[in-house]
Amino acid sequence: MRKGLRRGKEAPRAWQRMLSGRRLDLLDPSPMDIEIGDIAHGLARVARWNGQTVGEHAFSVAQHSVVVEEIVVHIQPDVAPRWRLAALLHDASEYVIGDMISPFKAALGVDYRTFEDRLENAIHTRFGLPAKTPAAIKGLIKQADRACAFFEATQLAGFTHAEALDIFDAPPAGYVLHIDPQPAAAAQARYVQRFNILSEAAGYTPTASAFDTE
């Protein structure tokens, strides 16, 4: 039927088709429609700082996530593999919603947070993690996230050392990071590699035929 001849009003589309063939309902995401390949592909192409960084390549959320997991282990070397996996996946919801800077998230308010939490819960369920991360682990991941942001801010985003200290606090003692933003394909491959290693270490078995949509 040609545009303009449609009778009645259809509900707006609330799903996104992923490259795996999955259709993810954005309002009520199902764990069965979430695939690590889709997450890695998306995060490797989502730029931190809205792309306002120096260098030939954007610093992707995929690369950021790998660094955050590394910092978590630096802060707490005995942290369980499943919580290291949670650290790697801490921004996984951004493969759907993008990386909104914190001030904008705050401006959007509670509805955005509810949507983000619902998607995060589905992702955790899909990969064997508790839907709700314990508060202590959330705090640990947040500390590592802010530490990574400090290095990103000073090395890539034009912040002075003093500005970054004021906003993000000092990184953990003894941890040094030199950031070299990776091309999307390299960041994607590294993210999947870390996921597979941590998922196996945590005792989770990947679902067979994950991309079979028939």
Task: From the structure above, extract its key features.
single chain; 214 residues; mainly alpha; two-stranded antiparallel sheet; 2 strands; 50% helix; disordered N terminus; disordered C terminus
Give an account of the 3D structure.
There is one protein chain. The chain has 214 residues and is mostly helical. Helix content is 50%, strand content 3%. It is built from nine helices and two strands, in the order E-E-H-H-H-H-H-H-H-H-H. Strands 1-2 form a two-stranded antiparallel sheet. A hairpin with a 5-residue loop joins strand 1 (15-17) and strand 2. Helix 7 packs antiparallel against helix 8. It is globular. Mean pLDDT is 88; it is low at 1-7 and 207-214.
- Low-pLDDT stretches are 1-7, 207-214
Question: Element order, helices and strands?
Answer: EEHHHHHHHHH
Number of strands: 2
Strand percent estimate: under 5%
**What is the count of helical runs?**
9
| Shape annotation | globular
How far the N terminus sits from the C terminus, by CA atoms, comes to 28 Å
**Percentage of residues assigned to helices:** 40-55%
Mean pLDDT: 88
Question: Major beta sheet, specifics?
Answer: 2 strands, antiparallel
Rg value: 18 Å
What class do helices, strands and sheet pairing give? mainly alpha
Strand order of the largest sheet: 1-2
